[in-house]
Input
Amino acid sequence: MKPGVALLSAAVLTATGARQERAAADEIARLQAALAEERAEVERLNAELDRVKMRRAERELEWYEYNKAVALLDLDEHVPLFPIDPEYEPATVEPGEALTEAERFERELAQRADEIRISLRHLLRIEEIRGLDLLEVGLLGRGAVGPVVCRLLDDRGRLSGGLSAERLRLEASIAGHTVTLIFENGFESRGGERVRFRGGERRIVLPYVDPKPWMDACPELFPPGKLEAMVDDGRWRSDRVKAELNRLLREVAGNAGYWRLRQLDGVLGDELTGVHFESFDSTGRLERRLFADRMTIAREGAAIRLTLRDGVIVRAGERSAFVDGTYRVYLPGARIEDWEAARLPGLSEPPGE
Output
C-alpha cells in the first residue's frame, strides 16, 4: 500500500473511532439523565405514599378516639352518627360552602381514588412495570375504581398505545407471588386502531410480586374475605392431611399421569391454605405446578373434585393466573369410600369431633 493511501486510511479510521466514541458518550449521558429522572420520580412517589399513609393513620386515630369517647357517654335514646367514614379523609370545604351528605361522600370517594392512583403508580414503579402508565382512575365504588385511562409504553419509554376501561379491580395469589390487574369493559388502542377487550376483560398478570404491599395500599380493590395472615385454625393436623391426600392421589395415578401435593401451609375451616401441587405425565416428567392460596375437596357425582382458588399455573417457566381466580382438578378414578374414610377437610369432620 502506498504511503499516502495508508495515511488516508488511518485518518478515516481515527475519525470513525472518534464519532463512535462521541455517540457512545452521548448515549451514556442520555441513559444517566433518564436514570436520574426515574430516581426522582420514585422519590416523589415515595413521598406521596408516605403522605397517604400518614393521613390514613391520622384517620384511624380519629376513629379510635371517637369510639372511646362514645363508650363513655350515657345515651339512652340516640347515639349521634359519626359523619366521617374512617376509610376516607374528610373533604375540604371552602368557608361558606355548604355540601350535602351525598356531595361530601362523593368528594371523599374521589380523594380516596386519587390516593389509590398514587399507590398503584408507586407499586408499578417498584416492580419496574414500565409499560403501563396509570393516568386516571375515576371514582371508587363496588370493589373497583373507574373509569380508568392508561398509557402503554414500549421498552424505551415511548408512547405505543392506550388502554381505557370502565373498571379496574385486583386479584392476588399469596402462594403464587402474583398480582393480577383486571380491566373491565374497555378497549386497547395501538396504531390508531381500537380493539375491544375479548370477553369484556383485559387481565395483566404481574408474576414474582409480593401481593401484601398491594393489599395494604389498595384493600378496597381486592375480593372481600381474602386470606392474609391466618392460615390454620388448629382443628386439623396439616401433616396428616398432606400425607393422606398424597396417598390417595397415588392410588388414582393412571396412564394420563398423576398429581402430588408438595406443600401445604395449613387448614382453615374446610379449606386447605398455601398449597403447591405438581402434575407429572405417565413417564414421571414434571408438566406443571399449581400454587394457590386456597383449595377445597368435594365429591361431585362419582368423582372427586379439587378446587384451587387465587393462584397461578407455572408451565415451562411461564406463569399464568387462574382464569376467574379458579382452577379445578377432577379425579374420576377415585374411590369415593376411600376418600371419605381418610377423613379429609370438606369430606368429613375433623378427627376427634
Observations:
- The two ends are 99 Å apart (CA to CA).
- Residues 1-67 form one domain.
- The chain has five helices and 14 strands.
